[in-house]
Each structure stands twice: as structure tokens, then as C-alpha cells.
Amino acid sequence: MAKIRTTLKELDPVWSRIVSEAREAVDAEPLLGGLVHACILHHATLEDALAYRIAQKLASGDMSEQLIREIADQAYVSDPSLAEAARADICAVYDRDPACHRYIQPLLYFKGFQATQAHRVSNWLWREGRRDLAYFFQMRMSEQFSVDIHPACRIGKGLFLDHAHALVFGETAVIGDNVSILHDVTLGGTGKEDEDRHPKIGDGVLIGAGAKVLGNIRIGCCSRIAAGSVVLNEVPPATTVAGVPAKVVGEAGCSQPSISMNQLIGARTGDQG
């Protein structure tokens, strides 16, 4: 058994780094020992740690921490892609957030990462036909994190929700891989029609703070939406849009705007992202 665990550890560099950083954190600040041990060091895998953290955050008088933990455990066993996406999300936060200096920070402290992982479980529940439980997760996420994501919303890997406050993503919204979204962003509809009515965000998109993207429109890969913009029409790939209503104001400024996180409209095309 020990040999198997060593092999798994070697194949999971993200979890290995989290455990190493957790031990260093306890040595540096013993008062946090209880938190760090409960959230990280008491667990054998990242999946176990994620299930525990989600349960801690979403538990209430309506549903106990143990029940939510069992639901999350079942999700991670049934769909390994959930934890694969979580690893990509941790790397995304570390790479793109200048306030993130260790892999343990998203898991312990950042509500954007925590809300994303809770949503991935709620989306699994939705796909399994367990709709009421999925809605419960959505409700608790909104109450705990100020992040309201419909359980049916589909989200790719490597998502970075910076600050993650006052976010609303609708039922038929789709978010691609390696997307970065700042606070107070809405991916909403334009009416009450019960159909495909929410935005489709391509890979590598950067959405600035306060932006509203409304309707069943496509936001092209590697494009940028400036802060405070209201986007009502489709956005071509690798362009920057700004304004109310948003209009194309130039190229994206780099090949990977969601990674460079450069929100200056005058960014040069040759800038590296």
C-alpha cells in the first residue's frame, strides 16, 4: 500500500506541492496548525481535501457537513475530470494572480477557487439528474461566496475568478478553458425566454470587472472585454471590446490575454501573454 501511495504522489505534483507548502505553513505559523491539518494534512489526496473544504463551506442547518462531504466524494469518484479541472484551476490562480504565492492559498483562502469547485460538483449533480441537490449547492454558493452560478452552466479547465464577488452566470452559459473573469461580471440573458439564452465564452478570454455579457452570443477565443462594458453582440476572436454598448476597439494585445491579465486597451499586439 505504501508503494502505491508513493507512486500516486509522484504522479500528482500539484498535491505534492500543496502538502509541502502546508507543512511549511504550520512551521511558520503554528496557530494555523488546526486549519492546515484539517484542510490538507489529514487527507491523502487532493480529491479528499476538496470534498472536505466544499463540505465545510456549504454545510448549514439544512444539510450537514457529513452529507455534503459524501456527495462531493461520490462526485470525485464518479467523474475524475472534476479533480483534473481543479488542478488546472489551482495552477491558473497561481500563474495569473500576483497575490497568490503558494498553491495552498486557493484551497485555503480564495473564495473564487472554492466556489468554482463547489460549482463543478453541483454541475455533476445536475448532469446526474439530481436537480434539487444541485440547486441547494447553488443556493449555498450564493450565500457563502456571493457567486451565483446556475448548476447547468458549463465551465472548462483553468478558470480564474479574481476576487469573485457579485458574479452571476446563467443556466445556458458556457465558459471555455483558461478563462479569467474579474469581479461583478454577469453572463446573463436578455429576457425570460426558456431556451439557449446565455453567452458562450471561448478559450483564453479575459473579462474585466463589472462587465455584462448578455444574450446567446459568442465571445471569440483570446479576446478581451474591458471593465464596465455591456456586450450585446458577438465578439471576434483576438480582439478587444469596450464601452456601453461594447464595440471593437482594437486587437487583443497579446496571444493569451487571460494569462497576461493585461487590461490596458492600448496594449501592443506584440506583447507576450
CATH architecture of the largest domain: Orthogonal Bundle
Shape label: globular
**Mind telling me the CATH class of the largest domain?**
Mainly Alpha
| Major sheet summary line | 6 strands, mixed
CATH topology of the largest domain: serine acetyltransferase, domain 1
Strand order of the largest sheet: 3-6-9-12-14-15
- Summing up helix and strand content along with how strands pair, one would put the structural category as alpha/beta
> What is the H/E order?
HHHHHHHHHEEEEEEEEEEEEEEEH
Figure out the total of helices: 10
Mean pLDDT: 93
The stretches of 5 or more residues where confidence is low (pLDDT under 50) are 1-9, 268-273
Helix content: 40-55%
Main attributes?
273 residues, alpha/beta, serine acetyltransferase, domain 1, UDP N-Acetylglucosamine Acyltransferase, domain 1, 6-stranded mixed β-sheet, 5-stranded parallel β-sheet, 10 helices, globular, disordered N terminus, disordered C terminus
How does this structure look, described?
The protein has 273 residues and is an alpha/beta fold. The chain has two domains: 13-146, serine acetyltransferase, domain 1 (Orthogonal Bundle); 153-265, Hexapeptide repeat proteins (UDP N-Acetylglucosamine Acyltransferase, domain 1). It is built from ten helices and 15 strands. The strands form three sheets. The chain has a six-stranded mixed β-sheet. Strand 14 and strand 15 (247-251) form a beta hairpin. Helix 6 runs antiparallel to helix 8 (111-127). The chain starts with a helix and ends in a 13-residue tail after the last helix. The model is unreliable at 1-9 and 268-273 (pLDDT under 50).
